[in-house]
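Changelog note: in this version the structure field was regenerated for every chain. One regenerated record is shown below for reference.
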Amino acid sequence: MTSQKKPRKVIPIVSDTSQEEFVSLYEAQKKIYPRSTSGYFTNWRWITLWITQVVFYGMPWLEWGNRQALLLDITTHRFYIFGLILYPQDLIYLAVILIIAALALFLFTAVAGRLWCGFSCPQTVYTKIFLWIESKIEGDRAARIKLDSAKLSVNKVFKKWLKHFVWISFSMWTGFTFLGYFTPIRELIQNIMHVSLGPWETFWICFYGFATYGNAGFLREQVCKYMCPYARFQSAMFDKDTLIVTYDEERGEPRSGRSRNVNAKEKGLGDCIDCSFCVQVCPVGIDIRDGLQYECISCGLCVDACDSVMDKMDYPRGLIRFSTQNGISQHWSKHEIVQKILRPRVLIYSAVLMLLCIGFAVSLGLRSSFTVDVLRDNGVMSRLVPDGNVENVYRLQITNATELPETYRISVSGLKGLSVVSKKEFKVKAASSRMFSVSLQILDGSTNSGSHKIMFEIDAVGKPEHVSEQSIFYLAR
């Protein structure tokens, strides 16, 4: 992988003989060239990659009725999530969705470590895609190392240029797709074809595109190691019963290179033949044999690599495997490891997550299909009309959250003799809001002067839905 170089600081040390010796305090970051492998976890990484990318690139093109199925329309302040329409006042639902996602991540981490990072994280997924493109153009690990160390030539320039051209093209398409979640993607592509894309749309496509290009093409493992906060606070969710990628040191040590015909037990050797295959396939360049490290993203590639070597050596698989610290130290079987999943931490996360999901579902189920805001006309507190009645004027904003036009009937209660003298039924278009003027009157002198609490009753015609909004009717003294 390509990485930024760490700064090197060199200080002089003066010895007793007055000879200066320079000592480097920082080591330059070495470029990582991940080696390809195959196996169970490699296959699952490709499966999750295809699933996530089909969803990401395909979702903006999916229609629901006559609109985009998933659209966070900032311009109209409406969020369309399949059959659900959310307005700014419904942002609590989006907040709850994010909280549920965060708790699900905490639960998943407590049970199985950083599998999200290794299999589904966008940084990991796009890095894998970029590495695949790189390998198709420049060759395998050995070929890439040779090409980078070779002198400048036409072949080298062509391969590097072609690689970056494909990277940038893919990144810009990613930026376009990302913006398609906020601007209708069919409208967006028409604007591009007619060269009428707005400045902000152009900015965000380029910004997200070049962020993808930089992170997946150059920073790669540096994002996981130094920029991602998840790598830092994951330890708060880990315990000795969390599934992690582990190296069985008791079985593997002492490690030593050997041929297949050597009897390791007679020579007192462990099963590890020190081939470094597990290090070569690691996308973050760590040696899992050094123990649990925060840089490990639990991708399982070292497990596949080690298992393939064990097969060639006729040794049992599992020298490197997914296990727990307690499972390794106490020699637990897979069944015993699974039994430890239901521990207090996991149960608490599960209970909170379940309560949130149930509450979210119930809240959505009880959510009214329309909302009403009542505003008094502050220009005229109260006025006496020619027929001897006292009149107050209100402005009602009705928001229709359905995708069909609806009719709403308005009535009032809370004050005897009070009635609606203006129009009582109003039509509102699908997924839109309208402001209506409503006049209320009462016979002058029929009640005491001052402020009186009243209640607006709004019913959806033809539906059993009802909304009540409180306000005040004012009679001048």
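Spot check on this record: The chain is about 40% helix and 20% strand. The CA atoms of residues 150 and 272 lie 33 Å apart.
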